[in-house]
């Protein structure tokens, strides 16, 4: 639909999907999900714009989902949108109450990175665009990487579904994704790319989670040391303090092998070498840099990085399963709350207890 004046300006509505499906009865429903139009697996549209640039806005890149809400949700009332694959597995979640997970972006690049943002939930028509990507890797707050993003793999061509949960209703509509018609690449090659990209994402998540756990435990250890006081004559205090120092000395080399702890800005890679997690993130970008099967070199690099990362994760597991358990047994005798290894959104008990 194009609306124009004589020689002054014009405006284009590029997606008429809601208009074609509109019916008077929709306005009487608490929530309604329109069937999305066909989505193409391309990088057309979207892209970054220089702040303040006087240019038109491109169509969004991805699958456009339109839905109607008779009224806006109440405060803290959640509206959810989920994307499901052909087997019914949820591959991405969005909410009106929180920003979707995503990689850390240096402040100087924030204006150039487009994020999905919260799910809109206004009275009337709403539109949201899924970028065709699966959930991203677990992130490390404040991490600064040189290259690589930690984005989830791009969805393969095929049948999917979108599921809207709003106003006490659960609505589902099919969504088809097709390959860019300009490309000559087989589904088998794309599946190989997707499989390796998923392995990279999962390994990066495991790496990032270990880094987060190490940093969280270090903060707990520092807090415990402060609470012990400075009574150097108390044998139990000396013992616990020694165990705390031993754990920190074992954790620090693991953390420093996984991530560059000195990096504070995007240019710090010029001063300090990137570490294993950053290298893995960069490999993910290389694997998805073109619509093609991964090269043999990509597989080899992944295997080598995975081996090195697994060696460090094994050292971290030793700290978790032995050193931390021993420390918890010591402080338990003095009725001091045990330390825990926290995972995303939960707390895992260590040494027979949890809080």
Write up this protein.
It is a single chain. This protein has helices spanning about 15-20, 185-230, 235-260, 275-285, 295-335, and strands spanning about 1-5, 10, 30-35, 40, 65-70, 80-85, 90-95, 125-130, 160-165, 170-180, 340-345, 345-350. By secondary structure, the protein is α+β, with helices and mostly antiparallel strands. Strands 4-10-9-6-7 form a five-stranded mixed beta sheet, with no helix packed on it. It has a three-stranded antiparallel beta sheet with strand order 3-5-8, with no helix packed on it. The chain has a two-stranded antiparallel ribbon with strand order 1-2.
List the helices and strands and how they pair.
Elements: E1 2-4, E2 10-12, H1 17-21, E3 31-33, E4 39-41, E5 63-69, E6 80-84, E7 90-95, E8 124-130, E9 158-166, E10 169-179, H2 187-228, H3 235-258, H4 276-287, H5 296-333, E11 341-343, E12 346-348
Parallel strand pairs: 4-10
Antiparallel strand pairs: 1-2, 3-5, 5-8, 6-7, 6-9, 9-10, 11-12
Helix pairs in contact: 2-3, 2-4, 2-5, 3-5, 4-5
Describe the structure concisely for a colleague.
The protein has helices at 17-21, 187-228, 235-258, 276-287, 296-333, and strands at residues 2-4, 10-12, 31-33, 39-41, 63-69, 80-84, 90-95, 124-130, 158-166, 169-179, 341-343, 346-348.
Q: What's the oligomerization state?
A: single chain
Low-confidence stretches: 345-355
Number of strands: 12
Cα-atom radius of gyration: 25 Å
Helix/strand/pairing class, anyone? Answer: alpha+beta
The largest beta-sheet arranges its strands as 4-10-9-6-7
Described by strand count, sense and barrel closure, the largest sheet is: 5 strands, mixed
What is the average per-residue confidence, as pLDDT, rounded to a whole number?
87
Order of SSEs:
EEHEEEEEEEEHHHHEE
Cα distance, first to last residue? 58 Å
What is the molecular shape? globular
Number of helices: 5
How much helix is in the residues? Answer: 25-40%
Strand content: 15-25%
